[in-house]
Every structure is written in structure tokens, then in C-alpha cells.
Amino acid sequence: MNLFVAAFGFGLVSMSVIAIAAVGFTMQFGITNMINLAYGAVMISSAYVAYYMNKAGISIWIGMAAGAMFGAVFSFLLNRFVYAPFMRKGTANLGMVIVSLAVSLMIANLLLPIVGYYPVSYQEDTGGLIHLGPIALTRDQFIVIGVAILLMLAIHALLTYTRLGKAMRATATNPTLARNCGIPTNRVVDAVWLITGALCGLAGVVAALNAGTFVIDNGAAFLITILAAAVLGGAGQPYGAMIGAVIIGLMTELSAAAWSPQYKEVVAFGVLVLVMVLRPQGLLAKRGALAAAG
Amino acid sequence: MKTFHLASRLSLPLVALLLLAACGGSSTSTGAGLGSGALLVGVIAPFTGADAGLGPAYYAACLPAALEINNNGGVGGRQVSCQKFDTRGEPADAVPAANAMIAGNSNLMAVVGCTSDEASSVVPIIDSAHIPMYCMTGQSEFNKTPLKYFHRLVPADVYDAYAMVGSALYGPGHSPYHKAALVFGNDIGSQAFVGPATAAFTKLGGTIAINQPINLTPGTSYRTEVRAMLDSKPDVILTEALGAAGTYLKEVKSQNNGQMIPFLGTSATIDPVWFQQVRDAIGISDFLKYYGGVDLGYTFSGPAYTEFLTNLNASATQFADAPKYKQRGSTLHLYDGILMTALAMVATNSADPKVYNSKIIDIGNGTSGATVVNTYKDGVAALKAGKSIRFVGAGGENQFNQYNNSQSGYILVTYDKDGNEVKVGELTPQQTSTIINAGGA
Prior knowledge:
A: mainly alpha, 4% strand, B: Rossmann fold, 5-stranded parallel sheet
């Protein structure tokens, strides 16, 4: 029984990491209509930015902030100089997916000669174990959970109470109508790439910290889990992505405790398939903050 | 008139023969002469994916071997180069890679790599193409393989597993371990260790606290797996060169209140990539205190090794990390394999693998009265002097059996703080025999 409770605690950490990444990914899609398969590559690039800062003796928490800033700027530039020109030319959605896949491969291959294929780690004292009954997590893991909760609350506040958030929702629902109503949709889209890019960069550092060691291939692996959480919750739905993250995060850890750990991803993705069969639009489709009224 | 008819009758096949000779060096394929043009060694191995650390070790074998050959006249004047073929450690990717390698390169003289991840799928393809290969696979299916072009210069994984059990039971610096956790990847190659290790360890009085076939997907955290492993209270972890070793062992230390438990690794853990990631993950002091490994009995000295080291360092211009593989067993062996192949070509004066393949065993094992040589240059000189040779390379002597498997004994090792291998003991013949009998090999 203790193992299951411990696994539940570990699941909280996993879901926190997934949530930060998946909310950024799904917001990007919900507002810009862009399935950005380079998201994982930007994550791992940000993780390496933090790594090199950490290697130079800078705290990983400052590195995390730098990773978020890097992710924001990188994503913004990607949209401005790669995606937006294609979109202006009327490239179809499927074409944009292929473009983002190409960007992902280019980033990974450009990065490889720089960072190498060696697994690397952040040099950070994890702060020892803190026990909450049978749940024992490190200080860093509690911080990751805390960061995720704060970010989710901040996203909720942004979308619900701010002018920018309302403009985002309007742009997501009907960009032409939003533009006609005087909303500067181009600037909104820029803001979305900056905000979701920051989430992407932050998620990259958090995921690398969570994994202990990381290599460039982690980017592609992250993306699969993020996609799963986003699709499970309903594509384009930030709250759905949060719920998706909870399900995927907890299922992977609990199934590792219940059965052989080699099947933990099979179980998590089995749940995804089941939900897709029963509710193809995802758990929260048309109910989230970014959805069209319906 | 009669003469004219004879000439015209002969002219057609003669022209055909000349045309055949002109197309693709058929003069070399008859076994007469070494031909001309560049030769290629294919390095078919994972360069990306979970086992991406393996391919560079084999590429680092090929580059110095090519230098050694090229700096000493080539193979009958033909220069040798190396090319990577990425299998991603997956049979599904390995088969097209192998087919592309063969279809696109008629000048392949040898292939190295073919790890346990992909050996079952690519070895038959390479064998069908009649290309000599040196595979770093430990799978038992190759213990008695009928494939003539397959060569293995390291023992099967089963012996690596037995050596680890020997280290756990008889290793220096600790009392015998009795309760082991087996932490191996859930891939084909990794699981080859589990059965033999379990059989030998339990029959010699030990118990398996937990057997964890773990998921090697990059980015996976192993918190729950480590919790379950710690709950089983093992006194030692038997493991291998997992790409995720740093993640797993860091989690062990974290969840065990900063304390490591001893971990013993296979010979593949004598690897600079593995050393670096585990050192960075748990710290050098814990690494040196708790790690034990097994390896084949290399001396890392002598003329063959010196020559290897010179060429390896010179290879840094093509592959900056090459010098890091100076003590990687597979790097040494594959280097030797390529040199033996080149010497076999010179010895048979043929670039036809059907001719020189069988000579490789003679070069490795030596025949009666053979002159022992340690470098390619000495080998070529001896062959030109009409002598038969035995090549003893950087990895030491080879003893090929009738299945082209070369066997050798194990030593118990650890690392020093700089990542150099340090021998700490060896298993006696009696201990080795006891373990093998217990394991049922």
C-alpha cells in the first residue's frame, strides 16, 4: 500500500511537469491554430541553456528563468520568421504540421554538434527528502509542484480577468470577427507565442530537472507525453490539458507500482485511446476558456 | 577463311569478358589481386535513440584502424574509410540501414557494430551479401551460428552475466552479496543478461530481491521503480550500460537519503559516456565507492595498444571524442577486427570476401609456426616475406572457435577519478567454473 501512496506522490510531480508543458502547447494551438511539433525541440533547447548556465556556476533556479526567457524569444522568432510567412501564404494545416516537424528536426540536428550525445545533469543539491506520511519527495520536487500550481492559477487569471486573456479568447474563437471588433490580433498572437514559449522553456528545464539526466532525444520523448495530455483534455483547452496532465502523470506512476514498470506508458496511453474512443473530442472540448461558445 | 571464322566466333565472348572486367572490378572478385579504388568499413550501430552511446565507440574503432592501414600502404594501395549507418537501436530502422549500406556500397570490405539491439535482423542480411562482420552482440543465438561471415570478438552476454555474479559473490573489498536487484532495460539485448544472472546467482545461494525490466524512453523518471527496488531491500544492484543509468542511480541516491547502494555493471559500463553520466548524476566519490564492473582482461599496454592509441588520438581530427575510447573494450576489438580483415585481404591477395573471409580466422588464431605480429605494418611485411602470421592486436589474443566466436576471460574492475579502468581482481578458474555450472551454460 505504501508503494501506491508513494507512487501517487511521484505522480503529482509528473503531472506538474506535464501540465506546465501541455498547457503551453495547447494554448499555442487553441489561439494560433498551429500544431507546433517543434515544441519538444524548443523545450530541450531551453533545458540546455539552463544547463550551460548551471555549469558556469549559476543556480538552476536562475537557469530556469533564463530557460523560460529563451523559450519565449525562440518561439516568438520561430513564429515571426518561419511559421507566419507560411501561414500568410495560406499553407494548409497539414502543411504547417510538416513545417513544424521540419523545424523540430533542424533544431535537433543543429543542436547535436553543440551539445553532443552525452547525457548531462544539472548540478543541484536536491535538498534532501521531505516526508508527508508515506509520500517522500525532495525539496526540488515540492518546488516543481508549487511552480506548476502557481502557473496554472496565473493562466486561469490571465484568461479570465485580463484584457489580454479576453483578447486571446476572442482571437481563438473567431480571429476575423475579433479583428473587426478592434482587437489587434497580430499583437495578441505575438503575445501568445511569447507566453506559451516561456511555458515551453520553463517546462523544458523542469522536465530535465525531473528526469535527473537528459539528452537531446528527450525533446521528442517530451512531445509525445505533451501531445497525449493535450489531446486527452481536448485540443486547444488549457483546463483540459491540466486534467490530461493529471491523468497521464498519475497513471504512469500508479501503473508502475501496480504492474511491471516497463508497461507504465502502455497503460497511460491505453487510457488515452479509451477516452478517444468514448469521447473523440477530448474531455473538455467546447468548455474551456479558449473554446468557441457551444 | 577458317581463321577468320574462328576469330569472329571468339570475338563476341572476348568482348563480353572485357566489358565485364571493365564493369566494377570483376578482376578482384575472382580472387586474383586486390583491385583499386577506395574501400569502406560500414559502422552499423545505434547513433541515435536510447543506445546512442554505442555507435560512437565503434566509429572510434574504425577511424584509427583506417589510419593504421592507410598510413602503411593501404590494402594493396587501396585507402580505407569509415561510414556510419544509424540503426537507432531498432530492428525496424536497422534493416533498411543494412540494405542501404550494402546496396549503396560495392566496396564494403567489412562491417562492424551490429549490437544486440539489431543483430538478429541485420546479421543475416550482411551474411547474405558475403561481407565479413564483427558484431558487438552478446546474444546466445550466435553462440553456435552457421553464418560464415559473422565474427564475434567478445564472449556472449551469458558470460558477462556470470562475471557479474562472480563479482557479487567473490569480488574484493566486500563480503559476498546475497540479495540482488536486477535492473536491466526492457529491450532484447538487455534482457539477455537476466536469465543467466538469475540462474547462477540463485543456485549459488543468493536471492533476487527484484527484477526490473525498465522502460528506456528518454525523459522517463524512475521514481516509482526506484521506490519498489529500495523496498525490496537489495544489498547490490546488478545493471548494465543503460542510457538512463544516471537518472535511475540519481533517484536511488535521492530516495535513499543520499546513500548509494553498491552497483555492479557489465563490461559495457566501461565506457566514457556511461562513466560521465553516472559520475555527474551521483558524484565521483559515491561512484568510486559503490561501483564495480567486469571486463575482459585487457592490458592497455604493448606495441599493438601503443599503435592503437597513436592512431586513436590522431582520429580526433575526424571525431573529437575518439580519444575518450582508449579503454573501451569493444573499440579495441573492432579495431583489431578491421586490421585482421585487411591482413586477410593482403594474405590472400584478394578483395573478394568469399576468398579472404576464411583467412581471417587463420590470421586471428594463427597456424602452426606463425609469426606473431602486433601492427598492420609488421603483418604486411611478414606476409610479403612469405610468412604466415598471427595477429595479436590492441584487444589481446583471439581464440576463434568453429563458430567464429572468440572467447576470453574476465577481470574485476573499477574506475579511477579520471575515468580510467582499474583492475581490482580476477575470478579464479574454479570460481568461473562454479558459476558457469550453476548458470547451466
